[in-house]
Amino acid sequence: MKTIVILYSQKTDFTDKKEFGGKSAVQLCSENIEVLNLPVFTICAEKIKTLCSLLGEIKLLCDKQKANSVVFSFDDLPFFDSKLAEKLIDSHTTYKSEYTFADGYPYGFAPELINTGTVGILFQLASTTQKTLGDAPVSRNSIFNLIKTDINSFDVETVLADSDWRLLRLAFHCGSKDNFMQCKALFDVGVENADSDKKSEIASKTIGCLKTVPSFYNIQISNKTSSKPIYLPDWQFDTQDFMPYSQFSDLVDRIADFSQKAVISLSAWGDPLYNSEILKMIEKILSHDGLSVFIETSGLLVDENFCAKIKDIFVSAKERINGWQKIMIAVSLDSFTAQTYMTIHRNSSEDAFDSAVKAVGLLSKSLPGCVYPQFVRINQNEAELENFFRYWTEKSNCSEGNLIIQKYDDFAGELPPFKPADLSPVERYQCWHLRRDMIILADGNVPVCRAVMNCANGKSCKSEFSLGNVFEQSLEKIWHKSDDILTAHIEKKYNKKCGKCDEWYTYNF
Predict the structure, then answer these.
(1) Which residue, 68, 95, 77, is CA-closest to 159?
(2) Cα–Cα distance list, 422 to 279, 377, 380 (Å)
(3) pTM confidence score
(4) Which of 166, 116, 115, 125 shows the shortest CA–CA distance to 146?
(5) C-alpha closest to that of 346 among 357, 363, 336, 334
(6) Do you find a cis peptide bond into 355, omega within 30 degrees of 0?
(7) How much is the mean pLDDT over the chain?
(8) ∠ at Cα 328 (173, 450), nearest 5°?
(9) Would you tell me which CATH number, out of the four given (3.40.640.10, 1.10.10.10, 3.30.1440.10, 3.20.20.70), belongs to the domain 216-500?
(10) What is the mean pLDDT of the segment spanning 389-399?
(11) Average confidence (pLDDT) over 387-405
(12) Chain-centre distance of CA 400, in angstroms?
């Protein structure tokens, strides 16, 4: 049986950086693949952009080479493990499987194995019944995502890792800044002779792998709210009411330079629509194609004029390169009836619920597929959860089946225990928010996390939970001020707030 290797080459600013002992990720990957002693072919992303065209090209190569199976991988994996690849090839050959992959490992250690006949079947799927996936740009999980649409029709084999590392969401490739930083951090701790299981274990305890650059920024452009939901603390901020556009614009440019790809949420505390410059702010964010906008609003200030203007901004903006929609809007409903809405949203008017539901429709008309009715799950609305879910998941509804159900956050013991169910994993791992999030208040102050936002309140704040001010310090300097807290999490040591917190396993973008 003949097996060939096909590499997908997608050039970025990081694929050819010689930061790994004087070699690039592409060079290291090539050297490790040579050990397999198989014919190697490269497909360039500049010419082959969609999954369907990729599968068609793989099929042509397999037919031309009379190959029975193909080892497929991106070419920017500095830790490509030839021994693990050989295990996959042996398993694929022995069990005559149609698709074989390494399960439980971080991405970047192993290739995928595909039977040539299966390539043809996948090409047909991508051309017909799964054309939406077929026409999408090639991604690192494109082939497996296509197989998953009808996985019971394929003979799939796996090689299992000693432990399941998927929860950490590590990906060792050089296709983006944050992933390049993960690779560099792992290389720098000296893993040249370690196998993939050992590399995974080392990475799970290496802060440079776990924390690269923020991927989620929650920026307070307004501290005004339409009501006072019982699931949020009644904090009073000494900060300015609004972040002005001039400061915001400069901050967004710095975020784009620092993170390159991220989601920017408006507003960390308060309804962003109270800021009269919000449309300019959205347009500014979207001027960087690596940034997306997430808006969390009551919807009570939404009108047709706002919807028309945000639609124009959306249409004019380039497509995103970060994998997210250009704009995502969550409208806080938290109920299925007006009575429950008023119970949860204190000080709200009798028609507020109807106005919020109407806002979902208005926004969806301008931004179809980008609007998400939101429900924070607490004891007070648990009886309405099923009706909310059934109604809003209907594809015929204005939100097209989109919705968000959030778990209740008691802000590290600040609020009463309103949580109707405990969703926390049995074993605690490092906090996602310390790894990925940065919260910025209207005056530029940065708290460690959302649970201690009031501890970074005011210009003269000296709290242990305040990291600095973005208008006075660099984002990088502020970002690394919480490294000690994350290091303690790796060692399973928690300060007084972290020890009470139940948000460590929740994940933003």
Answers:
(1) 95
(2) 39, 11, 16
(3) 0.94
(4) 125
(5) 334
(6) no
(7) 96
(8) 75
(9) 3.20.20.70
(10) 97
(11) 97
(12) 21
